[in-house]
Amino acid sequence: MQARWEILPADDAVVAHLQEVLGIEAVLARLLALRGVTTYDEAYRFFRPQWAHLHDPFRMADMERAVARLRRAVAGEEHILIYGDYDVDGTTATALLFDFLHRLAPGRVHYYIPHRQKEGYGLSMAGIEYALAQKASLVITVDCGIKAGAVMREGVARGLDFIVCDHHLPPSDLPPAVAVLDPKRADCAYPYDELSGCGIAFKLIQAWHQQEGCPVEALAPCLDLVALSIAADIVPITGENRVLAALGLKQLNEAPRPGLRMLIRHSGRGWPLRISDIVFGLAPAINAAGRLEHAELAVRLMLATDKGVAEEYARKLGVLNERRKQLDQMLFVQAMAEARRLPDAPAWVLCQPHWHKGLLGIGAARLVEHLHRPVILLAQKDDRLLAGSGRSAAGVNLYEALKECAPLLAKFGGHAHAAGLLLPQAHLERFRAAFAEAVRRQLDGKEQTPVHRIDAELPLSAITPKFWRILKQFAPFGPGNPNPLFAARQVRQTGLARRLKGDHLRLQLVQDDMPPVPAIAFNQGHRFEAVTAGRPFDICYKIEPDRFEKDNRWRIQVRDFRFEEVGR
Fold it and tell me: Any idea what the Cα angle at residue 57 is, between residues 51 and 59, rounded to 5°?
């Protein structure tokens, strides 16, 4: 499907002001304006994230109560259980808090990660029983707990206290915890509400250190895990997250903990690491533990202090990730085949009983990239129920669409972009039709066409050493601060063009009379003949470091080609 290209609109007055006060090119000022930067001071904070830019943790509702209860537990020699989730955010938060607390209360801190297939997401009764078996009196939930009111009430009745560290949207009734740390609470005055679950755990640690009078910079060793969580959980890299991500990437590149150092080595990713290296290299390996076996393996990797132990855990995660890739590819091929058998629809509900339930979410996300439709994948849970995971496409709120289908579902939850559900098998065809109709109503006649939102037109000759030096300072990139997408017109392929393994292209592109520019085009091997036919074409592209060059040169990553001239 041919994608539409849209040039994003920017405020010309803001662009002109930034160009004047910063002394930069208009295109760079435009990039800042598109990212919400309007003044010199905002630009300074954007380009120079610092420890001083972190917010006071005690501005978060219930933080005083959380620290007070934690101090009482440490001083009273109570046993503490950290209850986490099985994804990267949950495991990093668990490892971060355990690493901190076991230094204060050695031998009295425990952690519990639920089994993805047997228990599912969130606080479970199995976790409550485990806490009681460890003689714990305080349970700290990380990256979960905000919607666990019923289970938590049972735990409270059996003598447990709870501190919730969560970043998901809270229900109208908060759970019965001593403290609920969640900046999305309606009554919370904290100035930034997009922290990851691990980020909330970090703020609890920061609050403790602040009461001790310790400098915040002493927490640098924590931030490799925080950066990992921010990248993997796809939270916005804006505001405080941008500061934590930038400082965390510095820690990850300069002094990562032993387990992460070994994981980086096994991932084959080059240095320095970027957010994209975490998203596509480290995070899938960590998630493979929870998807195929048990996420506790990932926590052990993060907590490993011995190089040999860290090496063994990294190797195990690497093996699991390779197996995950094979299963994922098999699921993808089968799901695409099933989609082709079904009538075209605004949304796809695809089902095979044997699909691995731990891979449904990433499988759905991959299918959305190819089908440009919301996708729900379902597999057999038991004799009566199907378990499913869905991902949305542009213009569709997945949670709202599922809410319209609620009478047909046994259970569902999630947000606008991703959701999970349980569906009685007998309702499959009715649900397929109802879900497609709910999506159709949301779209209201809008085309389901992929869109490339372009920051600016930029001829290849404009990518000078100075321009590249400033553009690099826009990183770390991610949601809310994407790597800028540019357009260049009348480009030609010159020299040697190669098809690479995995359906990729390596190119040498020229525009006008400039020297050739190295380029890569992922998943576009099918364009080889058109690109090498000798006629000019337009490209939309990103600029990235070329790790094959020792002098840290750049290359362009072509996101799309147009072989007919479009309006200028």
Answer: 125
Give the single-character DSSP code of 498. Answer: E
Q: Which CATH architecture has domain 342-443?
A: Roll (3.10)
Structure tokens at 210: 């602040």
Exposed, middle or buried by CB within 10 Å (0-12, 13-18, 19+), for 335?
buried
Question: Which residues, 6+ apart, have CB-to-CB distance to 544 below 8 Å?
Answer: 483, 554, 555, 556, 557
List, for residues 459-499, the tens digit of each pLDDT value: 999 999 999 999 999 999 999 999 999 999 999 999 889 99
CA dihedral 161, 166, 169, 171 (to 10 degrees): -10
253 CB-near residues (< 8 Å, 6+ apart) = 271, 272, 273
Distance of CA 478 to the CA centre of its chain: 8
Contact 506, 519 (CB under 8 A): yes
456: helix, strand or coil: strand
Burial class (CB in 10 A: 0-12, 13-18, 19+), 177: buried
Whose tokens are 């003044």? That residue is 39
Concatenated DSSP letters of 53-92: GSPPGGGSTTHHHHHHHHHHHHHTT-EEEEE--SSHHHHH
Name the burial class of residue 25, with classes exposed (0-12), middle (13-18) and buried (19+) by CB atoms within 10 angstroms of its CB: middle
Per CATH, the number for 57-255 is 3.90.1640.30
Angle of helix 88-104 relative to helix 197-212, nearest 10 degrees? Answer: 20
**pTM summary value:** 0.92
CA distance 164 to 241: 20
- pLDDT tens-digit profile of 127-145? 999 999 999 999 999 999 9
The end-to-end CA distance of the chain, in Å, is: 22
Mean of pLDDT values over 419-442:
95
Question: Under the phi-then-psi rule, with left for phi > 0, alpha for psi from -120 to 50, and beta for the rest, what region is 532?
Answer: alpha
Selection from 211, 322, 215 nearest residue 267 by Cα: 322
Give the contacts of 188 (CB within 8 A, at least 6 positions apart).
Answer: 60, 61, 182
Nearest to 163 by CA among 184, 146, 188: 146
| Domain spans, the chain | 4-9+453-562, 57-255, 256-318, 342-443
Identity of residue 67: V
Report the number of secondary-structure helices (H) and strands (E) in the chain: 20, 19
Supply 46's token pair. Answer: 């954007």
Cα(323)–Cα(563) distance, integer angstroms = 39
Using alpha carbons, select from 58, 62, 28 the residue that is nearest to residue 43: 28
pLDDT per residue over 265-305, tens digit each?
Answer: 999 888 889 999 999 999 999 999 999 999 999 999 999 99
- CATH code for the part of the protein at 4-9+453-562: 2.40.50.460
Check: CB of residue 260 under 8 Å from CB of residue 281: no
